[in-house]
Amino acid sequence: MSDVEIKVENIVASATLGKSIDLPQVAPALEGVEYNLEQFPGLVYKLKEPKTAALIFGSGKLVCTGAKSIEDSKKAIHIAVDKMRTLDPDIPTEFEIKVQNIVASANLMKTLNLEAVALDLENTEYEPEQFPGLVYRLGEPKVVLLLFGSGKVVCTGAKTISDAQLGVEKTKERLTELDLL
Amino acid sequence: MSDVEIKVENIVASATLGKSIDLPQVAPALEGVEYNLEQFPGLVYKLKEPKTAALIFGSGKLVCTGAKSIEDSKKAIHIAVDKMRTLDPDIPTEFEIKVQNIVASANLMKTLNLEAVALDLENTEYEPEQFPGLVYRLGEPKVVLLLFGSGKVVCTGAKTISDAQLGVEKTKERLTELDLL
DNA sequence: ATGTTTTATAAATGGTTTTTTATATACTAT
DNA sequence: ATAGTATATAAAAAACCATTTATAAAACAT
């Protein structure tokens, strides 16, 4: 059976600068930055290219969301950090970036009977009145698949692209084993 | 130099039951329980004897505060868990209890010049207009001492009574070394 | 018909919520 | 004079705040 092709839709990555950041000091370097500390303890900084958002904390940690590739995620983080450095030269140019979550989509190319899947496939939750997708939790890799009646799939929770790929493939194989696909 | 006598004032302990708890199901067994999930995600259950409060979470974890001895802390936790078990027999009778914080007080029996202490003692913070105590952070054991002009001391952050005792003794010795006592 | 919102999933980040307790100073209210 | 509040310290617990993204069905608004 041929592999399923997945498409990376979202990357969540974190970065640790290794020093505290004075948020009010660096905020002017980030045009359009959102800063409401009563509501959320970080700066929200959005980039148009790559289209991402960065959450920036006083601890010197960042979270970047929205990138569609690991490269873009790193690029966005470096852009944000380079801008911050213009107002705080002690900010390092090298630091750790870690991919925390990868969201990927795929198409199984066949419709699914989710009621039957819910009955026969293990580790599932399906409440169609609440949400039209069926939640399927894999243990290895530790990812969560959302299965839709259209045959489309979302895989979330992966830390590597190969885990996302493997998660989707294992799901397809399991559905085929159970004659659900 | 003789040892300082400390008095345990507060014990914070956590317990892990190892299974989820249906909070609305067990709440009736806890007379006077406070339950406002919009404000805080746990039940607040207070005992008169030992005089303690327990925070009870749906995850099956508890926090007990207010006991003045480790024995009393464990007793209070068992009382709360025994009551919960009357409405949820699957709750185990044996589970892990861990002391997380011990607050102890002591008297150095000599007044302190906190301005001088702030100048000569390392790792201190002293803002008398904000709070009349001087904050002194020890690394080993990792505790925090609050020093007051009266010579009274609060030691907090210890996980064992001997750490609290050692923290206070080391502080006294250090102050004596610096001729601040 | 189009757009928006809600429902659900994962993940990182950090402050708040609640509870307790000694210490002590200032302030307010009764 | 008493009482409460705030200031500060530690610690555990867990949900929310905000960010993103695919998927899709229902409901609502334009």
Structure description:
- The structure is a homodimer of 181-residue chains.
- Chain A is α+β, with helices and mostly antiparallel strands.
- The first copy, chain A, has 4 helices and 10 strands.
- Chain A has a 10-stranded antiparallel β-sheet, covered by helices on one side.
- In chain A, a hairpin with a 3-residue loop joins strand 4 (52-57) and strand 5 (61-67).
- The mean pLDDT of chain A is 96.
- The chains hardly touch.
- The structure holds a DNA duplex (30 and 30 nucleotides).
Short description:
The first copy, chain A, is an alpha+beta fold and 181 residues long. In chain A, 24% of the residues lie in helices and 35% in strands.
Q: Which class do the helix and strand fractions of chain A yield? A: alpha+beta
Low-confidence parts of chain A lasting 5 or more residues at pLDDT below 50?
A: none
- Our estimate of the beta-strand percent of chain A is 25-35%
Name the shape of chain A in a single word. Answer: elongated
The helix-strand sequence of chain A is EHEEEEHEHEEEEH
**Main sheet specs of chain A:** 10 strands, antiparallel
Q: Which oligomerization state do the chains in this entry correspond to? A: homodimer
Average of per-residue pLDDT values of chain A: 96
Tell me the number of helical segments of chain A per DSSP (H or I, 4 or more residues long): 4
Give the strand order, joined by hyphens, for the main sheet of chain A.
Answer: 2-3-4-5-1-6-10-9-8-7
Level of helix content of chain A?
A: 10-25%
Distance between the termini of chain A: 12 Å
Total strands of chain A: 10
Question: Any idea what the radius of gyration of chain A is?
Answer: 20 Å
